[in-house]
Amino acid sequence: MPPPSGDGADTSACGRCTCSTTSGDNENQIQNCQHCRRSTLPSSSSSCSLLSLESYPVQDYDKLWRIYSASVKGFTIGAGLKGGLAIFAVLSRLGRRKFAKKVQMVSSKEDIVFALKETLRYGLFLGTFSGTFVSVDEIVSAVGGHRRTAKWRAFLAGAIAGPSMLLTGNTQHTSLAIYILMRATVLASRCGIKSKRFGRICKPLTWAHGDIFLMCLSSSQILSAYILKQDSLHPSYKSFLNKHGGKALVILQGVKDLACGNSVMNLEAIENHYKSNGIDIKLDPQMKVPCSIVHENQGCGEHFISFLIQAYKRALPVYLPVYLVPAFIVHRQGLLKRPNTILAKGLLGTARSSLFLSVYCSSAWLWTCILFRLFKRCNVPMVALGTFPTGLALAIEKKSRRIEISLYCLARALESFVTCMADVGYLPMSKKLERADVLIFSVATAVIMHCYAMERDVFKSKYLNVLDWVFGVPLPPYETTPHKKK
C-alpha cells in the first residue's frame, strides 16, 4: 500500500517500485524492477532509496544537470537522425546530376544549406522538447510535491513540451503527429488490458494477428488513394508508392477513369507507353475490367510472377542499409567477434523484408485483378475491397517488426482518409486548424510521457532504454525526490 500523500513520509516502500523489500535476498527483484533495473548496487541495499540516474548515485542527483543533459541528448538525437537522412538525400541528388554545370553547382549549394537548416531545426525541436519536459517535471515536483503530483505531472509536462514541434518550421508534420498518436494509443491500450476496469473492453486488442488486420485496413485506404487520389498522400510517401507500385501514371489514370465510371480518355497514351517498351497492344474502349491496361497481353498470374521479380530487385536497395548500417554501428564490437553471425542475420533480414515489400506490391495488382474478373466490373468499392487482402503480406515479416510497420501504415492511411473527407466537405472544421499536427502531437506526447512515468512496463525495453538515456531514469511515483548532499 503506497504511503500517504506528502513528501515527508517514510519511503521504505515505493508503491509501484517492485524492488521494495524488508528482508531477504532481493537481487532478482532489483534486476526486474522497471525503475531500478540500471542499479548495480549490492542486493542488501535498499534500492529505492539508492536509486540511480544514469549510473549516478542518488545523492548526486542534480536537477539542473538532468535538464541540461536531457536538452543536449535530445538535440543530438534530432540533429543526428535528420542530419543522416539529409546527407543521404543530398548525395542521392548529386549522384543523379551531370557534371560541370553552373546551375547545378548552385543547386547543390542550396541543397546543402537546406540540409543544414533542417538538421538544426530538428535538433532544436527534440532538444527543446526534452529540456521542456524535464524542466516542467522538476518544477512541478518541487512546487507541488513529488508524490502529490505523481499521477498527472508527466502528462502535463508532455503536453507542454509538445508545441516544440513548431521549431521544425512552417511545414505541417501530420504524418509524424498521427504516427506518434498511434504509438500513444498502443501504450494506452496496453494499460487498459491490464486494468480491471477496462480489461474486457480492451480484450480484442490482444488478438494474435491484430497487426495484420491493421495492415489490411491501412492497405485498403493507402492503395486506393494511390490509384484514385494521390493528392491525399504525403509527397514523399506518394513518391515511394509510385516507385514500388511499378506502374506509370498514364496506367494509373486509365484504371482511375474506369473505376470512377468514366470512359478511359488516355487509351492512346497507354498504348504509346507500352510501344515505347517494345510491346504492341490495342486496347478495347468498351472494356469492363482494367486488366489489359495494367498488364497488357500478360495473364494475371503471369504478371504477378514477373512483377514480383522486378519488385524484389527494387526492394533490395531499400532494406540493405536498414539492416547493414545498424550492424556496423550498433553491433560494431560484436562484428569483430562473430562477423559471420551478425552479417548473416542482416542479410537474412534484408531478404525477408524485401520479399515482404515485393509480395505486398505484386499481390495488390493480383487481388484487384481477381476481384475485377470475378464480378466483371471495376468501381471504387471494388478497388477498396481488392486492396484489403494485400496487407496479408505482412505475415512474411518478423513478428517484432509487424506492429511497427502496421502502425506506420495506419498513420499514413488516417492522414489520407482525413484529407479525402475534408476535400469532399465532411470535415469543414479541419481546414480552419492551421497546425492540427501540433495539437495531435501534444496530446500524444502527454499520453506517452504519462505511461513512461507511471506505467513503464507497457514499453518495450529498447524504447525504454532510449527514453531513460535521454530523460534520466525517473524516480518511482511514490518516492521522495532526493537532494544532493552538501
From TrEMBL:
Give the originating organism: Capsicum annuum
* Superkingdom of source: Eukaryota
Q: What is this protein called?
A: Transmembrane protein 135 N-terminal domain-containing protein
The record's section on InterPro entries has: Tmem135
